[in-house]
Amino acid sequence: MKLKNAIVGMLLIAPWGATLAGAPVCCASGDNGKPSGMSAVGTTELGQFNPSVQNLSLSPEYQVFQFTREGIRYIEVADLAGAPRAAFTVVNGALLTLPIGPDTAQQVAISPAWTDVVYDDGSVVVARRTAADGGVTWQVYVK
What we know:
Layout: H1 2-20, E1 62-69, E2 72-79, E3 84-91, E4 94-98, E5 104-107, E6 116-120, E7 124-130, E8 136-142
Parallel strand pairs: 5-8
Antiparallel strand pairs: 1-2, 2-3, 3-4, 6-7, 7-8
């Protein structure tokens, strides 16, 4: 757990440190790792209420937003009002959850077809699983 927290901390702090040092944050192309069509504003709104990026959700009950910074893709699940529920990134096939939202995210070994799929981009599937007590867990399957 300490190693996981240290990795997430390095991922979140490294770009900030480079900015303070006056070093360029990323990319000779000038796109700072953003996929085409993603606004510069969208890369800084991870974890914020109702971000201004495209909703990629397959479900009418939730919103899913994708952010990219320095070549690392982050996925956030939010409720219909835009409040973040959970966020994570996948690095080298392993799920790293971010301290955003009240729900948990867990990596699963098989595609969670039996639950409510809210996101599928061809490499990552995200599905909702609701426990008997009403708690929500986001299951993430890395293809």
